[in-house]
Design goal:
- The complex is a heterodimer of chains A (about 270) and B (about 270).
- By secondary structure, chain A is mainly α.
- Chain A has one domain.
- In chain A, about 70% of the residues lie in helices and about 0% in strands.
- Chain A contains twelve helices and no strands.
- The longest helix of chain A is centred in the C-terminal third of the chain and has 32 residues.
- The model of chain A has no long low-confidence stretch (mean pLDDT about 90).
- With about 270 residues, chain B is mostly helical.
- Chain B has a two-stranded antiparallel sheet.
- In chain B, helix 3 runs antiparallel to helix 7, helix 3 runs parallel beside helix 8 and helix 8 packs parallel to helix 14.
- Chain B starts with 10 loop residues before the first helix and ends in a 6-residue tail after the last helix.
- Classes of the chains: A mainly alpha (about 270), B mainly alpha (about 270).
- At the A-B interface, helix 2, helix 3 and helix 9 of A face helix 2, strand 1, helix 9 and helix 10 of B.
């Protein structure tokens, strides 16, 4: 266990180098967010005050996007998938096959340290942004919703990591994984609720998406916070989210084992 | 042909043709990858259209724009963005790499305008396929609107799309020139992607204020697609937005040239 704490420390030191980059990235990502919020204000502008859109008031809709930004800052993979794919392609994983260290646990530590630094840095611009829009930010539904929100954010982070890890494992089979990662990301962007809340989709489509792991990356934690998912639905949702995390872990292990069998350490 | 006896500018068409040929050869080495990138871009374009169609399932107009007018706007914004990608984007993303590796030193020695070489060395052929898809969406939206633009409207649309292209190019060139002063410019260049998101939002959605002023007079993202779209739709109330976009394009191009010259004077070569 001590060695992984050490990896965590190294990860923090390495990512601290990029703090200015992170600050810039977090600040730049607020531009499209501001654009989206203006767009939604204009959409609601054509309606009577207090009118709702797919069951969202304007404040709830703006809060939805603000919370998506928060959860995304906390869980999104930054470079992890590219780095893992590059380490496989360049043969750098050979050393991990020889050392008494588990590659999955090693990458998880680097992911956690990267997110810790990014979230801390992003807190400055995002915090200012939230303060400016505080009139629109609705408080968590209740204390239970807040606690469940934090728990589901942690699960979402794990799920996000395993998804990226499995995608990066493609590097064992194909030369360039970047297009696959981008195609997967396009689906994730819509099905996780990043583009808009999933409940404004036509009912059939919204229900179909619920059978994929994607809603548990963003939409589920945010709707828990807003109190749109409560009672038995909340516990069921958390259980399904946890099940997806376990499935993600199993898929990650499986893909790694199959990949290593194919791996021939070109130039390693 | 002896270069010394030919006027300088006449060599450029032949030079650019050679650069095109190189790009074709390079792209065709990885055909699957080439096709997959087109798919990636098409998916993101479809995503933007999906967003608008979901919104219009619940409403009839946004800030005075009807459904098919907004589809046309999204199409215009993607058309300008894809043309920018086709001619300039990958070149400008590499500027900091040219500086870091010292390749820029060799480019400066060539008897060619360095800005031309840095900006147009490669052509992204896949982006032309995506630009065609965007043009098709614009055409379909016009059909659904039942609007047949006049010759003047087509001309205004063409000129304004070029001005929008010039705005993207000049701004991105400015950003990549920052690489002469700091090695971290790569991050700034990637940040430019965030600006494309502003371009496809109907202009009426932005209330008067700082945000609107900045994205009109400093980074004119609110103009780059809205003005060509309005020119084509014939919904411009006056010639002012057209003059403004053309003026911003010229001003940004001049600013980027001034900054580029300053940066070159400051530049001392790699490793020195």
């Amino acid at each position: 266990m001590r060695k992984y704490l050490h990896v965590l420390g190294i990860g923090i030191q390495n990512t601290l180098v990029y703090r200015a980059n992170f600050l810039f990235r977090a600040a730049a990502s607020l531009i499209p967010l501001a654009g989206t919020i203006y767009l939604w204000k204009a959409i609601y502008g054509g309606r009577a005050a207090g009118d709702s859109f797919g069951g969202y008031t304007l404040a709830q809709m703006v809060s939805y996007y603000l919370l998506v930004t928060l959860v995304d800052a906390f869980t999104a993979v930054a470079e992890d998938d590219w780095q893992i794919a590059a380490e496989i392609k360049d043969g750098n994983i050979s050393q991990f096959l020889l050392k008494p260290i588990d590659y999955l646990a090693y990458r998880l530590c680097l992911y956690v340290s990267g997110r810790a630094i990014y979230t801390t840095v992003a807190l400055v611009p995002v915090g200012i942004f939230l303060f400016v829009l505080r009139g629109y930010l609705v408080p968590p539904h209740d204390n239970l919703a807040l606690a469940a929100f934090v728990a589901s954010c942690l699960l979402a982070g794990l799920l996000q990591f395993f998804l990226a890890y499995v995608m990066a494992m493609l590097a064992f089979w194909v030369l360039d994984v970047s297009t696959f990662i981008f195609i997967q990301f396009a689906f994730e962007y819509i099905a996780s609720g990043h583009l808009f809340p999933l409940d404004i989709l036509p009912a059939g489509l919204a229900r179909a998406i619920q059978f994929t792991p994607y809603p548990y990356l963003l939409h589920f934690p945010v709707s828990v916070y807003l109190g749109r998912t409560g009672g038995t639905q909340l516990w069921q949702g958390l259980a399904v989210q946890a099940a997806w995390v376990v499935a993600g872990y199993a898929a990650a292990r499986f893909a790694w084992n199959r990949g290593v069998r194919r791996y021939s350490a070109v130039g390693g | 042909m002896d270069a010394r006896h030919t006027p300088n500018w006449r060599r450029y068409p032949a030079l650019y043709a050679a650069l095109w040929k190189n790009s074709v050869v390079r792209e065709m080495q990885f055909k699957t990858n080439f096709l997959l990138w087109i798919v990636v871009e098409l998916l993101w374009f479809a995503l933007q259209l999906a967003f608008m169609s979901v919104v219009y399932a619940h409403t009839d107009e946004i800030a005075g724009w009807t459904r098919w007018q907004v589809v046309l706007l999204v199409g215009c914004s993607n058309l300008v963005q894809q043309l920018f990608t086709a001619f300039f984007l990958s070149n400008l993303m590499e500027v900091s790499e040219h500086i870091r590796t010292g390749r820029l030193d060799f480019m400066l020695l060539l008897p060619v305008n360095t800005r031309f070489l840095v900006s147009m060395r490669k052509v992204d052929l896949g982006a032309f396929a995506n630009a065609a898809a965007a043009a098709a969406v614009v055409g379909y939206a016009l059909h659904r609107l039942g609007h047949r633009p006049s010759a003047a409207e087509w001309l205004g649309f063409g000129a304004m799309s070029l001005a929008g292209l010039a705005v993207h190019y000049s701004l991105m060139f400015l950003l990549s020139t920052v690489a002469f002063y700091t090695v971290r410019a790569q991050g700034i260049v990637f940040g430019y992607y965030n600006l494309f998101n502003i371009a496809r939002i109907p202009d009426g959605a932005f209330p008067p204020g700082t945000f609107r002023r900045v994205f009109t007079f400093v980074l004119p993202m609110i103009l780059v697609a809205n003005v060509p779209a309005r020119a084509l739709l014939g919904t411009l109330q006056s010639a002012v937005p057209m003059a403004l976009l053309a003026g911003m394009a010229l001003a940004l191009f001049a600013a980027s040239e001034a900054f580029w010259r300053r940066a070159l004077k400051h530049y001392a070569g790699a490793g020195s």
